[in-house]
Amino acid sequence: MLVRLLKNHLKISAKQVISRNYVETAAHSIKTYEKIKQKREEAWTGGGQHKIDTHHEKGKLTARERILLFCDDDSFVEYDMFVEHTCTDFGMDKMKFPGDSVVTGHGLVHGRPLFIFSQDATVFGGSLSSVHARKICKIMDQAISVGAPVVGLNDSGGARIQEGVESLAGYADIFQKNVLASGVVPQISLIMGPCAGGAVYSPAITDFTFMVEDTSCLFITGPDVIRSVTNENVTSQQLGGSNIHTEISGVAHKSFENDIEALLQLREFMGFLPQSNKSPVPIRVCDDPCDLDVPILETIVPRITTAPYDMLDVILAIVDERDFFEIMPKYAENMIVGFARMNGRTVGIIANQPKVAAGCLDINAAVKAARFVRFCDAFNISLITLVDVPGFLPGVHQEHNGAIRHGAKLLFAYAEATVPKLTVITRKAYGGAYITSSSKHLRGDVNYAWPSAEVAVMGAKSAASVLYKNKLNIEELEKEYIEKFASPFPAAQKGYVDDIIEPKTTRWRLCRDLNLLATKKLENPPKKHGNMPL
Amino acid sequence: MAFKNNSKLFSKLCSCCGKANVHFGKHKRSQHTTGAIIDPNNEAIFKKVLIANRGEIACRIIRTAKRMGIKTVAVYSVADSQARHVKMADEAVFIGPSSATESYLNIDKIMEAIKQTNADAVHPGYGFLSENTEFVRILESRENVAFIGPSAEVISKMGDKLESKRTAMDAGVNVIPGFDQIVTDAEHCVQIARVVGYPVMIKASAGGGGKGMRIARNDHEVREGFLLSTQEAESSFGDSRMLVEKFIENPRHIEIQILGDQYGNVIYLNERECSIQRRNQKVIEEAPSVFLDTTTRQKMGEQSVSLCKKLNYSNAGTVEFLVDQKRNFYFLEMNTRLQVEHPITECITGIDLVHQMFRLAKGHKLNIKQEDVEINGWAIESRVYAEDPYKNFGLPSIGKLYKYKEPNGIPGVRCDSGVEEGSKITMHYDPLICKLVCHGKTRKEAIEISKQALDSYVIRGIEHNIPFLRDILTQQKFIEGNISTDYLPQVYPEGFQGITLGVRDRHKLVAVAGALYATNELRSRSFINIPDFKIRSGKAEREKWKLFIRFDDNEEVYVNVAQTNGQFRIEVAANVFCVDKNEINLSSPIMELTVNGTGNVVQLLSWNASGEYQIIFNGNNYKFYILTEQASNYLNLMPKKLKKVKLNKICAPMAGLVKLIFCSVGDKVIEGQELLVIESMKMQNFIVAQSNGTIKYVNFNIGDTVTNGDVLVELE
Description:
The complex is a heterodimer.
Chain A: H1 2-16, H2 20-44, H3 49-57, H4 63-70, E1 77-79, E2 102-109, E3 112-119, H5 130-146, E4 150-154, H6 165-181, E5 187-191, E6 194-196, H7 201-205, E7 208-212, E8 217-219, H8 223-230, H9 236-240, H10 242-249, E9 254-256, H11 259-270, H12 297-300, H13 311-318, E10 324-327, E11 335-342, E12 345-352, H14 363-378, E13 382-389, H15 396-400, H16 403-416, E14 421-430, H17 431-436, E15 446-449, E16 454-456, H18 460-467, H19 474-485, H20 489-493, E17 499-500, H21 506-517
Parallel strand pairs in A: 3-4, 4-5, 5-7, 6-8, 7-9, 12-13, 13-14, 14-15, 14-16, 15-17
Antiparallel strand pairs in A: 1-2, 2-3, 10-11, 11-12
Helix pairs in contact in A: 5-6, 14-16, 18-19
Chain B: E1 11-13, E2 20-22, H1 31-34, E3 48-51, H2 55-68, E4 71-77, H3 84-88, E5 91-96, H4 107-117, E6 121-123, H5 133-141, E7 146-147, H6 152-159, H7 161-170, E8 178-183, H8 186-196, E9 200-208, E10 211-216, H9 219-237, E11 242-246, E12 252-260, E13 266-278, E14 281-287, H10 294-311, E15 315-323, E16 329-335, H11 342-349, H12 353-361, E17 378-385, E18 387-388, E19 395-396, E20 399-400, E21 403-405, E22 413-417, E23 424-425, E24 432-440, H13 443-456, E25 458-460, H14 466-474, H15 476-480, H16 487-491, H17 503-524, E26 544-551, E27 556-564, E28 567-572, E29 575-580, E30 591-595, E31 598-607, E32 612-617, E33 620-628, H18 629-635, E34 649-651, E35 656-661, E36 668-669, E37 674-680, E38 683-688, E39 693-698, E40 705-706, E41 711-715
Parallel strand pairs in B: 3-4, 3-6, 4-5, 6-7
Antiparallel strand pairs in B: 1-2, 8-11, 9-10, 9-11, 12-13, 12-15, 13-14, 14-17, 15-16, 17-24, 18-19, 20-23, 21-25, 22-24, 26-27, 26-33, 27-28, 28-29, 30-31, 31-32, 32-33, 34-41, 35-37, 35-40, 36-39, 37-38, 39-41
C-alpha cells in the first residue's frame, strides 16, 4: 500500500520536473537547504575561529566544547540554533551570529536528562541580549515542566549594552524563572568566565555555584567602577576570584583547577541529585557492604575530651566507599556539609568539625549549614547530622553581627525539614547548639549518642562557675557536674537520644534506619511559605 | 605443616598460625586451632606476667602466656590507650604520657604497675627496658617477682663492647682480629695493621655514626687514615683515642639463637641470616642461611654455647656474628633478650621461644636436647614498616589504619602484629606494623609465599614499605642468596625508586586501569530506582571508550576499551587484553583480576572524578590520570598552572591561649607539621605549617593570648 502510494507520487513528480515553475521551487529549496547548512556551520564556530583561538589562549574551552565534555556522548540536543538578536542600533543589524551568545538545549549526564545553557564568550563577549535571555527561559520552562535539573555554564561580559533596557528585562526574566524553579528542580551554576553586574544574581539564586580557578570571577561592580568611585585599586581576581568566593564571601560552593576538572567533577556531582522535588533520590548500585562494623570509628574520638580530631575521618568511615562530595570545603571550616551515599542512596551530611575552632557554631557556619539543610529538604535528601559542638561562638563581633538571627536560620531550617533526619552525637552537644543540631526536639527521627557523648547546657567548668559563684570548693563541684552530665546518660534516660551505640556500628545502623525511613510521611501545616529569619 | 611426626615432649609451634602445640605421637591438625599448651609434667607456671612493652611483641607474649594459662597484664601510655595489646591482656595498667621516657622506659611506673597487679613475672620484650641492668637489678632484689631473661650481671657484661669481646675471647669464640687497646701513633697503627692483616678499620674509641672511621688497605692508607680519623674524632667527640681492627669486606650478618637453663645446660637453635639491613636496621631476615654449611653452623653454634656456659647464661639469647666471604665468622655482640626476628627460628625448629623463656625463668630444666633441634623448611620474615620507602629506604609515616587486612588466609603465613583496623601509628614509637613470617618447604617456596602475602596485604591510611619488600624478594641477587650487609646500597645505589615494569607488564597495568575506568563509568549510570533513559536505541549505554592514560612519570598511553560477553576487551598499542567484568569490584579493598588468563592482585586505593587513580598492581603503587580522549585533547588547551604560592604566615584561626610551642626560630619545618597548640573553648587546636620552610619568627610565648588572625609564626 505504502509502496504504491510512493510510486504514484514519484510518477507525478517526474512529470512536474518539466515544469519551469518547479525548477524555481527546487532552486529555492536547495538554497534553503544550503542556508540551513551554512547557518549551522556558522553557529558551530560561534564568534569565528579567530575568537575561538583567543578564547583558548585564555585557558578556556568554548561554549560548545564545554557542553560536549559535560554531556554523555551524542546526547546533547540543541534548541534555538537559528535565533538571532533583534537589535538594530549601533550597526548591530550587520553583526549577527546564529544562536547569538548562548548555546541551549538538553542532554544526558550519566544517562539522566538535564537542561543546560552555556554562554558563548566568543559572541559579543557572551553578553546577554533579549534573545539570549529568552533562550535560557525557554529551557528553564521546559525543565520545570519535565522535572529535570538546569545547569548553567556562565561566561558572560554582562548586559548587551546596545540593547539597553531590553537586556535588563532579559535578566529579570531569568531571575524570575530561577526563583520559580527554586525547590522544583536543582539549579547549578558553573562560573567559567566573568559574571558581573546584575548577572551575578542568577547564580546567587541557584542552588549551587561553582567556579573555575583563575579564569572566572563574580562581582556586582567591577574594578574600574570601584577605582573611579572609591580610588581603590583591585584586580578582578582580587575582587571576585574563586579564592574570594570560596573562602571569604561564601558566594561560591567550590572551585576547580580548570574547565576540564570543573566539568568532570560537575558530572560526578549531578549523580547525587534527584531530578526534581517530585523524583526519588537516586539510589546507585552499591557494592560496599552496609552490614559490617567499621572498626576505625572506635578510635577516632580521642580519650582526652579537649583534644581535637578530624570529623572527616568519621564521615569517610560511615559513607559508601569513603566517597564524600564536600560543599564549601574552604568556607566556615568549623562546619562540614556535603553529599555522600549510604547503601547507594544519596544523603546530605552536616557535621561539626572539632579540628577547626573547636567545631563551634558561628554566623558563617550556621548560614552554610542552613542553606544546605534547606536544599536537601527541598529535594527529599535525607539528612545525617554528626554533632560535636561546644556551643555558639561567644564574642562581641559575633553578637554585633547578628549571631542570633543567623543562628536562627539553622534552627529554622532543621525544624522545618520533613525529610528523614538522623543524628549522631559523637562528643559534645552543649546548649542551644545541641537543640539546633537536628535534636530529637526538632523532630529528629533517629538520634544516637556515642559513649563519648556529653549532652549538657554548657561545659562543666562554666556550669560550676555559674552555679557556685564565689564558692571555694569549685573544683569539686565541677567534678560533680562532670559526673552528672558529661555522659550520654542524662539525655538517654529522658529518651532524647534513642540509643547509646558502639561507634563501629554506626554505618550499618544508619543504613538500616534510612531504609526504614524511606517511607516517612510528614507534612508541615499548609501555608504560603514560612518566614525564615533571613 | 612441615613437621615430621615426633613424640618429643616440648611444645611445638605451628608454622602457619604461630600457635604452640604439644605433640603427643601423631601431629593432629585440630591441635592448631585449640592451641593451649598442656604440660605433661604439670610444671609449675607463673601466675601472672606483666609485659613491660607494647605493640606486636606484647601481643606475641600475651598469646603464649594465655595458652600456658598465665594471666597477663599490659601497660600502656596515653597514645596506646586503645591499642591491641591493651585489649588482649587480662588487665591493663596506665603508665603515663605517650613519650616512651615517661612511660615504657620509666622504671618507677613499671614497678608501680607490678606492685598494683601482683604480677609474679615481668617479660620485657625487646627494646625499652629489656637490656636495662638497673631495672633487672631492682627486680632481682624483689623476692616475689621474676625477670624473664638473664641476670643483671650477664646483661651488663654483654652490654659493654670491650668487656663482651674479652669474655668471648676467653670462651674461645672467634673475634675480629685487632688491637683492643689504644693505638699510640701512626707508625704503631701500621705495625698492628700488618699483624692483623689488610684491610683494616681504624676507628675512634669514642666513635659512633661512622665518624672517625676509615678503611685502610695498605701502609700508606693507614698513615693517612690514622691522621684524618684522629682529627675527626678530636673535633667530633673531643677524644682522639684510636682503635684498629680487621675490616671484614662484604660481610653477612648471621646470628645464633640460644637457650640456656639455670643448671648450665645450653643449646643452640641454629642461625638466622639478617644481612638485608638499612641504617643498621634489619628489613628481611631468613632462617636458615643459604651461606652456612653444616660444619660452619655447628662451629658457630658450639662457640655460642661455650660463650653462654662461660657466662652462666640462662634464658633466651642471641649471639651475633659477622661472616666473611670465606665463611670465617667473628663475634659481634650478644643480645640478652628475645629478638624481633625470633619467629623464623620458631618456624624452622617448631619451638615456641616465649614458652621456653617462661619455663626457664621459672627455673625449669631445658627439655630439648641439641640433637632434637632440627631445621624444618625455610622461613622468611619481612618487616612491614609504616614508612615511605622511596625516601632514604624508609622515612616514618604516621596516621590511622582505616582499612587493614593481614594475609592470614594464605597457608604458611604468620603475621605478628600489634595493630588492627582503626589503630593509630604515632610518632612516639617504632614504626613496625607487622612481621610477616612466611614458612615454606624450600627457600623458593618461602619467597613465593612472601610475595603472595605482600600482594594480598591491605594497608590504608599510612605509607608503608611493602613495594620495597616485594622488590627485594624479586631481585635476582636475593633469589640466588647472594647478599651481604651492603646489599641495599649496592642494589639500590640511588635509593629505592619503585618497581620499573617491562613494556608488556606496563600495558597489562594500563589494561587494568582501563577496565577500572569503564566499570566506574558503567556504575555511574546504574541507578536501582531510575529506569534507563534512552534517546536513540543502542546509544544509551556506552559500549566503547577511547581513553588516554598519563602516568606519574609522564608516560602517556592511548587505550581502547570495549565490553563484550561479560568481559572488557582492551587494546593497548598492539596488545589485546581481556579482563573479566565480574571480577572487578570498586568497593573491595583487594581484587584478583584475571588478565588474559593470568591472575593479578589489584588494590584500588583511590580515584576521583577528575580522573586521578591510584592503584596497587602486583605489590607496587601507581598513580595516573585517566581521561577520555576528548577530555585529554581539551586538556592540552588548558594552561599549565604554576605551583601554588608558599603560605609563609601562619595566623591564629581563633582567639585563644597559646598552650604549647613545638618549634623555634631557625627550625626547618615541613608542610603539615604541628607548630603550636592554641587552647580555646577548652579545646586544643593544633596549628600546622602550610608549606615547607624555616621558621623566621615565633611571635608569641606559651601562655600568651592571641586573637583571631594574629600572625603566630612566620616562615621563610
